[in-house]
Amino acid sequence: MTTNIFRRLLFCCVVVFFSLSTLPTSASRAKKPEAPLRVACVGNSVTYGYGLRHRESDAYPVRLQQMLDERYGANRFEVGNFGRSGATLLNKGHRPYMRQPEFHQALDFRPDWVVIHLGLNDTDPRDWPDWKEDFIPDYRALIDSFLVVNPKARVLICLMTPIFDRHPRFQSGTRDWHAQIQEAIRKVANGANVQLIDLYTPLHSRPDLFPDALHPNPEGAQILARTVYGALTGDHGGLRLPPVYSSGMVLPRDEHLLIEGQANARQNVRAVLSKGGKVVEQRDAFTRADGSWWFELPHMKAGGPYKLTLTATPLPPDHYRLYYPDHYPYLLENLTKAKEQTLIIDSLYFGDLWLASGQSNMELRVDQCNTLEQDLADAARLAGRIHIFNMPARARTDAVEWPDSVLRFTNKLQHMDFQGWTPATPNAVRNFSAVAFNFARVLADSLNDVPIGIICNAVGGSTTESWIDRSTLERELPNILHDWRNGDYGQPWARGRMAQNIAHALNKDSAAYNLLQRHPYDPAYLFEAAIAPLGPLPIKGVIWYQGESNAHNVELHERLFTLLERSWREHFARRWNCEFQKKSTLPFYVVQLSSLPRPSWPAFRDSQRRLCKELPDTWMAVSSDVGDAADVHYRTKRPVGERLALLALKNTYNHDIESEGPTLRAAVLGQNHTAHLRFDHAEGLTCTRGFELAGPDGIFHQATIQIEGDRIVLSSPDVKWPAAVRYGWSGFTDADLRNGAGLPASTFMAMVPYN
Asked: What pTM was computed for the model?
C-alpha cells in the first residue's frame, strides 16, 4: 500500500512538473486576493458539451458561470471548461484524460475549486474489463495532481450522469460496468475525503433529455449546472419537505418515525412538535453537503392535532471555512447571513397512513358511483377521523390530442396534481376515489379513534410497467424500456391511446416535435411522477386496483407485478441508512379484475389469484360479482373498498374476522365419475352455478353442483373421468359461490388428480 501511494505521488509530481515547466514563472502570475475564484470543470464530452447545437452558451460550465454571476455578481468567479470528448479516467484506457491537452490546461488554470466528472467512457469494453483495478488509484492520482498545483484546492467529484437503455452497449456490459464505476467513485470520495456530487439521480428520471442516451440536451445541461452550483455554493433552494408533508397530514402512530427533507448545506434544522401550545418534542438536525437532513420522532400515540414547526438556521462563519476560503468573504457572507427559514405543518395527526393506487377503477370518484348518498352520509359522520390526499392527473388520458402545455409538464414529471390534505368532508369526498374512501371508512369505524390518512394517485388506463422504478426495469426487464410504444410489451389499446395523446409531439412540423416525448403509460413514468415524489413515506400498506391495461399478457404481468411489489417495498423502506426503520415487506391488498366480456380476463383473474397466494404479504379482494357487462367502470365500488378493508383488518390489524371468500384447498377424484372439492373459508357455502368439468380431452362442460359442508361435489354426464375443474371461467361471469359472510370466490382452474 505504501509503495502504491509513493508511486502515485511521484507520478503526480512528474506530470505537474512537466506541465508547469512550460508556464511563465514571473510573479505576475501570483493571484491577487481580489482575483476571481477559479472553478475548473474537468470531464469528458458531457462537460465539453458534445451534441449541443450552441455549446458556447449551453454547455453546463457556461450555465454554471451564469448562475454564479447572477447570485454573487460579475467577476467573482471564473469557470473554465476543461472537458475532453472520449476521455477516460483510466490511464491505460483508450483516451486517458491525464494525457490530453485539456488536463494540462486545467493545471495551468490553477483552480481553487475542481469539479471532476469522468468515468462514462471507462464503460467501454476496451477499458473496464482489463483495467478496472486501476480506477481508484488513477482517480486519486488525478485528484493529487490538482493538489500539487494548489494544496488548498477544493476538489469535488461526481457520480456519473446516466446511460440509458437506448445506448447500443447497454445490455452487453455498459449497464453493469456503469454501476460498478459509480461504486468505485463513492470509494474514491470516501478515501480522498472529497465532496461527492450526485449527477445521476436528478437526470435518471429524464431520458427525454438525452437524445443519444448519453449526452444531455440544453435542458439537461441546465440541470447539471444547477446541481453543481448547489454543491459548490451550498445553495439547494432552501428549506423544503416532500409535497405530501403538509398541514392536515397523518403520520404513523406507535413506531419510530423519520422526518426528512432538504435545506441549504450545513445548516441547523430544528423541529418543534407541540400540542395546544405546549412543546411535546424538540429535535435538531444538521444538513449534509447535499442539503439533505432527517431527524427521528419517538413513538406517538394515535391522535392530534399537533403542530410541527421546522426552522433552518445558518451556522456561524467558522463552520464554513473548511469548505470556503477566507479570502472570498462574499461567499461566507451569503452563507452565514442568510435569512432563517420556517415551515409549519398545522393539524398534524398520528394514525395510520395508506396509499391507494392503480388505474381507472381505483380512480373512479364517489360521485360517479351508485352509492353516492350513502357514502356522503358516512363522510359527514367520519369527517374528523379520515384525512385524504388526492393526486389526480392534471390531464386525462382520454381519446384526445394533448396541447403543447400538457406535453411540456408531462416531460417535466409534473403530470400529477398534489392537491394537499383535507378532512374527508362530503364535499371533499365527492371527488375522491370511491374504493379508497370506503376502505378508509371501514378502518375508521373499526379502529376506534385512530386517524386514517389515505393518498390516492391512480391514473386511468395506466400500465403496470409505468409504476415500476427505472433501475428495477433496467436490471430485470430492460427490453420493455426500449421503444415501448412500437413494441409488443404494451397492450395495443394503451399504446394506441398514448400515440393519440402525444401525436402533436410526433409531428415533424410541430414546434413541440420531440421523439422522446413522455407519457404516463411509459414504463417507469408513474413511479417517477407519482411515487418518487412521496419520498420514503412511512405508509402502513397499499391498496392496488390495476390490470385492465395488462390483461392481454398474463405471463408478462406476472413478472411485472412481482417487480412492482419489490420496487415499492425497496422505495418505501429506505430511511437514510437507518436500518432499524427498514421493513422487509409492505402489505399489498389487490383487487382482482371484475367481470367484463373480454376473452383474456378469466385467465388473468386466475393469475392474480395465484400471484397473491405466492407473493409475501399480498392478499386479493374479489370483485367479479359486481361487474357490469357493458362497462369496464362498473359503479358498485362500495363493497370493493369494504372487502379490501376486511383483508387489512384481518392481516395487518390481526382482527379475528372472516376476510376472504371460499378458496380451494384440494380437488380429488370421487366415486361415480365425480370430482370432490374442499374449500377454506367455507362456512355457510352457497352456490348454484359457475362450475365446469373436463376430462382428459380438455373439453369443459357445465357441472352439476352438490354442497356437503365445506365440500362441493361436481359431476357431468359428458365427463366420465374428471381431470380438470374451473370456476367462473368467462369474461363476464354470473358464478355465485359464496360463504356465509357473503364473500365471493375467485375465478380459478385446478387439476383433479387421478388416484
From this structure: 0.93
